[in-house]
Each structure stands twice: as structure tokens, then as C-alpha cells.
UniProtKB/TrEMBL annotation:
This is Styrene monooxygenase/indole monooxygenase family protein. It comes from Streptomyces caeni. InterPro entries: FAD/NAD-bd_sf, StyA_sbd. The lineage of its organism: Bacteria, Bacillati, Actinomycetota, Actinomycetes, Kitasatosporales. SUPFAM superfamilies: FAD/NAD(P)-binding domain. Keywords: Monooxygenase, Oxidoreductase. GO terms for molecular function: monooxygenase activity.
Amino acid sequence: MRKILVVGAGQSGLQLALGLQANGYEVTLMSNRTADEIRSGRVMSTQCMFHTALQHERDLQLNFWESQAPDIEGLGVSVAGPESQRVIDWVGSLDGYAQSVDQRLKMAGWMETFAQRGGQLVIHGAAVSDLDYFSRAYDLVLVSAGKGELVSMFGRDASRSPFSEPQRALAVAYVHGLGPRPEHPEFDAVRCNLVPGVGELFVMPTLTLSGRADILFWEGVPGGPLDVFNGVKDPGEHLSLTLELMERFTPWEYARATKVELTDANGTLSGRYAPTVRNPVGRLPGGGLVLGVADVVVANDPVTGQGANSAAKCAAAYLASILEHGDKEFDEVWMRQTFDRYWDTARHVTKWTNAMLGVPPEHVLNLIGAAGALQPVADRFANGFNNPADFEDYFYEPEKAEAYLASVSGA
Ligand SMILES: Cc1cc2nc3c(=O)[nH]c(=O)nc-3n(C[C@H](O)[C@H](O)[C@H](O)COP(=O)(O)OP(=O)(O)OC[C@H]3O[C@@H](n4cnc5c(N)ncnc54)[C@H](O)[C@@H]3O)c2cc1C
């Protein structure tokens, strides 16, 4: 039986470990935290996942929370004007619903399932020296440790990483008591509120430890008025700041947030990181090779809510490559081909996400504006969150955007 070590129990590592286990591989999963520590720890993400990524979980019968999590049927965009009024406000319809399940709930539950099914779970924060040893004991070592210190084994790919600094300061608060959007009280949506030059506020429903909740997520341009969460340790203070900024920049979202309270004392998160693509193969001091997975090798800014989606897609692609490879050696050529298969999807995510971090060019403003009057444009933009490759056909180049708008408006 082939022996595989998976280091890091997040979206990609657990999905891969459970998928390999179901296919008869002998899998060891190494996590720096126990399931209880994850469950009782700090929130990690907003983790909104769209149809294709959710389907990968369904394919492995890992959609344990699907019936409890709110169905997110739309994705809306609002743009703030100079007086904090809304100059654009529309909602597109998703072809398949999205869902967000608090990673504390999901990762703890998946980890317990892995152990119950006979998987070997090792609670240990792996260091490079450990991996040196393990690379000799296993047929394959997969490093799915997110943006932690192990990324230092994988060199930065400068040609695919245009930024060397964080592009947004992140601040998340999980709350109970948010009112529905008055424009569509009958269905849930991710609401993207763009404040030009300042940042973005994302509001979305989730399933957390205490049931249905909503997430208020500010992404602030570094050094700007939203970049004020550094050093804020008190969760109550974090929520007050979040609400003050909503009242100032997005009063229409604040109007439904006046009665909110935090879901729990660990329901806030702040931080920042530079979006980075890395060389997928890590070479250990003793000569062994390890393959990087998901955020380890492609970490995009969460402004487009893609990281967990990409982690699910990466895990699905790697699982297929491992199964297809049978008993052959997992050598460097195979590792690079396996990453390239994932990069074929991930490159679209990286291109689109990096574009959304910049100042939007005029043709993009036209598209976003036109979506208010042309429902097919709103729907197409919303469904791009499920399949970012679609942006290639109408989003980046002014000529393609104009041709698309002309075709939709019948001009
Ligand atoms: C504020 C914020 C909002 C986000 N919102 C969204 C969203 O709405 N939609 C979306 O798709 N994505 C979102 N993301 C991104 C998404 O959460 C991540 O991209 C995704 O979780 C990455 O999965 P992963 O498996 O690569 O790593 P992770 O989920 O980070 O898992 C890595 C695991 O490895 C463990 N680990 C680290 N080092 C070691 C070690 N040395 N030894 C053992 N274990 C180790 C960690 O504790 C962790 O459990 C968001 C991210 C942030 C920060």
C-alpha cells in the first residue's frame, strides 16, 4: 500500500487526506493543532465556497453541513460615491448556490472523521528537519500548511507574483443579529461593497459553531482609513471599529447591522499578507522532495473569496494525479506536472484577483455599472466567482468588454 504524508489539516490537506484514505492509501496527517483546539480557536477565514468547489466535497461525500448552512443564491455589488451614497447597487443570480461553513467547524469535524476511519493523525507542528526524515519514510510528502513558516521551502515565483507587499489589511467579525438586505429579503447573497480608493466591505451568511451567522469583512487599502485594526486585541473593540467604518463608508449596510453582536470571543480576525505564487517543489536539505499544495504554492488576496475554492480544486486535481500515477515513483517531473494541472485553473484566479486589487480601468467600471441595468451582465459577473476563467472572455480587454455589452444590450 502506498504511504503518503499530508502536512497541514486545512481545506486542502483534509480533503486530500480523506480522499486518499477512501481510495485505500495509507495516509498520515500531521496537524499543529488538535480538532478541539481548532474548534475552540479563532476564526480563520470567511470561506465562501461556490458550486464547483462544493461539488468536489460532495463527490467525496464530505458535505456534512450542506443541509444546515445557508444557501447563498446571489452575489451583489454596491459602489459608494463621494458622499457615501450608493451609486451602483445590483445583485446577480448564482447558477448553483454557494455556502460558507466556519472552518473551525469543518476542519475539526473532518479531522475527527479521518481518525475514526482509521487514519493516522499526528499532532505536531512539522519543521523542515522533520520533513527531511519523513521524505525517506513515505512515498510522497504533501505540504498543505497554508501560509505558515513551511512556505520558506518553496521559492517565490517572481514572474507570477506582481506584489511583494500586502495589498489589503484584513478585518473579519462573525456576528448574530444582522438584518436581511431590504432589496432581497427572500434570499441570501454575498454583498461586495466597493469604496473606491479605500477598500471593500464583504457581508455574507455563514454556518458557525452557534448556528447561522453573518460575517462583516473589511479589506482596507494599507495606510488608508480602514487600516486601523492592527494591535486591536479586544473583540468588542474590533466590532465597534467595524461598525463605525460601516456607518461612515457603507451606511446602507450599517442600517441592518445596528443590533449585531459577536458570535463568540474568537469571532474576530485581522492581518495581512502579500499575494504570492511559489515554486511547487521543495527540496529538503537531505535531498528529498516535497510537493506544495493550495495556499503554500498559490496564495491570493481574499478580495475575490477564492482561496478555499482553490484549495478544494487543488486537492481534487492532486488526488486525480496521484490515483492516475498508480505505483510509479512520485518524482520531480510528476510533481511539476501535477502542479501545472492545478495552475491551469489557478492562473485565472490569480489574474482576476490581482486585477481586482488595482484601480479599475474605465471599461471595468462600465461593465460594473451596466450590470445594474442589464441582468445578464450581473449574473455573468456573479458566476465568475465560481469559474474565474470566464473573465478571460469579456473582462480584461476594453474591446472584449465593449463587444460583450453591445451583444447583451442588442446595440
Ligand atoms: C480573512 C480571510 C477571508 C477569506 N475568505 C475566503 C472566502 O470567502 N472564500 C474562499 O474561498 N477563501 C477565502 N479565504 C482564503 C481561504 O481561507 C484559504 O485560502 C484556504 O483556507 C487555504 O486552504 P489551505 O488548505 O491551503 O490552508 P489552510 O486552510 O490555511 O490550512 C493550513 C493548516 O496547516 C496548519 N499548519 C500550519 N503550519 C503547520 C505545520 N508546520 N505543521 C502542521 N500543520 C501546520 C494550519 O494550522 C492549518 O490548519 C480567506 C482568507 C482570509 C485570511
